[in-house]
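ugh ok fine here u go
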Amino acid sequence: TMHGRLAAHLQGSGRVYSFAFSGAPLSQYLAWANYAREKFKPEAFIFNVVGNDFDESLYRYKSAEGFHYFRQTDDGLDLTLVEFRVSWLGRAVRSSALLQYLVNNLNAHVTVPALIRKLFGVIGIAEADDKHDATEFVGNTSAFANNERITDSLKALDAFLAALPEVTGVDNEKVLLVVDGVRQRIYGRISKEQAEKSYFGIMRKALIDTAKNKGYHVIDLDEVFSIEYAKAQRKFEFENDFHWSGYGHNTVYKAILNSSWLGNLQP
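structure:
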């Protein structure tokens, strides 16, 4: 992982803590940052931002248990926790070390269905066409960008950036936002125009422009991944999982290592 590599690089001069969970949006990042500030008093923060982080920060679009979301009130958007309640299946998993390992370490609840889909594809039940998927979903979220979704997402984005100084307790220049690239465009599966007009394309630009105007450091992985893919022709995610692979994480790590943000932090 990029944070593991960064920890090794800073060994002896600094320490790296990582907070992550699949499906966590920008709103949850604020809760983790606030906890990290109180518990560890870090000198700097890195936030990884991907396609489904924007609208899924709002309770009206997603309300999974155990996450914090922005809820609309008369005073604006308030950060609210949706309490976690363990289901019977969750209790069964927690009662078995083997099941916990299969789910938490091997991601079996994702990989097993993926293998089943691939098996059905082999015996004649066609999977969805790649080009169709690439058009419908960009950045691992729906490419459809209507005005309501964009307006709501921009509110969540503004609320996230506005809350960062308080929850981190550091100056804006010590916060780095790493923004995922439109990998389908990089791989040639969709056009530049399709990427820019997609929901993620619009939100990426809004985040990068607004964050830079507020004095935050930004690494745009669309540029980083494009350069690397042109050289190596190698994808940055797993075959059956859109999360970065070790190769993807290493590419991000090298971008952070070469950034002015990291250089400014080191004595």
